[in-house]
Amino acid sequence: MEIRDDVWVQLLDESTGFSVIIEDDGHKAYAYLMDAAKVIVSDVWLYNRGPAPKTTDWGDPSKLPFSNPAEYVSDIIFEPISSACEVSIHWKQRANPPIEAHLSVRGQLFAILRQGIAPGWSRLAVKDGPLAKVLQPSAVSETP
Length: 144
Known about the structure:
β2 and β3 (28-34) form a beta hairpin. The strands form two sheets. The protein has a five-stranded mixed β-sheet, with no helix packed on it. The protein has a four-stranded antiparallel β-sheet with strand order 1-2-3-4, with no helix packed on it. The chain is mainly beta. Mean pLDDT is 88; it is low at 140-144. 4% of the residues lie in helices and 40% in strands. It has one helix spanning 137-142; strands at residues 7-12, 19-24, 28-34, 40-48, 87-93, 99-105, 108-114, 117-122, 133-134.
C-alpha cells in the first residue's frame, strides 16, 4: 500500500484491540495509539516533510496537527515513509496495564507510544517538546 497525502496506515494488536495509526498529510507525520474503544491514548510527532518552521503558533487550532519547530527537530536526513511495509509495531504490556507500542521504520526503532503518556518519544526529536520527547538510546537497547 502506498502512502499518499491524507492517507493513514493502521497496525492492530488483536490480543488487546489497541492499534497504532500513522498519518502523513504531506507536510508532517504523526502516530496515534488508540485503545479498543478507538480513543486516542497517546500520540507522537514522527517527522516534518521539508524544512521545519522556525516557530509554531500553538494557539491556532486551524493548524492542527502542528509541524514540529526547528529547535525540537534533528537535522538528520530522513526519507518519509512511502509504504506500509516499511513500518512495524512491537507491542509491550507494562504493569497496571499500560500498553506500549514500539514503532519501527525500515527495521529501526523510530518511536514509542505509551498508553496515558502524550507526547510519546520520537527518534527525530532532539529536545523534549509539546509534540515529541527525545527517544533515548536506553529505549533503543530495550527493543528486541
